[in-house]
């Protein structure tokens, strides 16, 4: 099996002129995180099994099953994959498709997933006018039409808010009040409220719920029961957790994950 963390040392996607190159990698160890790096090509990070977290300078992006995170060309990023996960990487030549100039989480259709899987089995030096080249053009047209999902946690790298985010990711059940968090980072409650709104466009409470949503999706994607996830996030009842989840994503957790895992049993 390929090792995601050895990949940058053994393969340079920028060395190939193809409009799109794909890789499929199994990851055995979630205790390490890929160092920050960037490519001339843009990159789509696709979760084929398990969950992937992408970190960029101003935020954290979750890649649950049936979704992908688009990372524009030249943007430094780092990836972490859940235990025994499988990851798909699609590298796109700048200007080859009408893709966003900013990071975003994209829903991935079964057709697009199959196209990426197929391309991952092809050599990167395929001719542009051959069958694989024509397939790559269809793939990129499909990718540009995929809808975005809001699975992003905005937070600046050097911010005091990042310290709170790191603490909550380490222990998402921590139910300290905003006043207590403010004191922890040597701010007044009002200053923390202003900082959260200025940096994220969200109130502190909404920002914390977004973090809970990201952690919940990570754990649900590897099969953790809803009741356990609810307890791990510090919710007083399962129904309160389900209400939060449904308000954010429009579906209860079980239905949301079932809809996105329909294709996963094939892999």
From TrEMBL:
| Domain of life according to the entry | Bacteria
Record keyword DNA-binding present: yes
Keyword annotations: DNA-binding, Repressor, Transcription, Transcription regulation
InterPro entries given in the database record: AraC-bd, Homeodomain-like_sf, HTH_AraC, RmlC-like_jellyroll, RmlC_Cupin_sf
One GO molecular-function entry = sequence-specific DNA binding
- The HTH araC/xylS-type domain is annotated at 162-259
Keyword Repressor listed? The answer is yes
Query: What Pfam families does its record include?
Result: AraC_binding, HTH_18
SUPFAM superfamilies documented for this protein: Homeodomain-like (SSF46689), RmlC-like cupins (SSF51182)
Span of the secretion signal? Answer: none
This protein's name? AraC family transcriptional regulator
The organism named in the record is Microvirgula aerodenitrificans
């Amino acid at each position: 099996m390929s090792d995601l963390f050895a990949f940058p040392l053994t393969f340079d996607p920028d060395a190939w002129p193809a409009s799109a190159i794909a890789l499929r990698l199994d990851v055995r160890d979630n205790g390490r995180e890929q160092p920050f790096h960037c490519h001339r090509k843009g990159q789509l990070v696709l979760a084929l099994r398990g969950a992937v977290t992408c970190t960029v300078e101003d935020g954290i992006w979750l890649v649950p099953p049936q979704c992908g995170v688009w990372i524009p060309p030249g943007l430094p990023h780092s990836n972490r994959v859940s235990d025994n996960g499988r990851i798909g990487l699609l590298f796109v030549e700048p200007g080859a498709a009408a893709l966003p100039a900013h990071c975003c989480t994209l829903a991935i259709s079964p057709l697009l997933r199959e196209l990426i899987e197929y391309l991952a089995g092809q050599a990167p030096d395929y001719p542009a006018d051959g069958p694989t080249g024509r397939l790559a053009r269809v793939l990129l047209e499909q990718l540009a039409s995929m809808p975005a999902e809001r699975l992003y946690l905005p937070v600046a790298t050097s911010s005091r808010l990042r310290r709170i985010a790191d603490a909550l990711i380490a222990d998402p059940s921590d139910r300290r009040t905003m006043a207590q968090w403010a004191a922890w980072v040597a701010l007044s409650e009002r200053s923390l409220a202003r900082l959260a709104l200025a940096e994220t466009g969200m109130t502190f409470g909404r920002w914390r719920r977004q973090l809970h949503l990201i952690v919940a999706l990570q754990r649900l994607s590897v099969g953790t029961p809803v009741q356990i996830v609810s307890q791990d996030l510090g919710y007083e009842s399962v129904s309160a957790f389900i209400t939060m989840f449904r308000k954010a994503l429009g579906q209860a957790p079980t239905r949301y994950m079932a809809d996105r895992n329909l294709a996963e049993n094939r892999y």
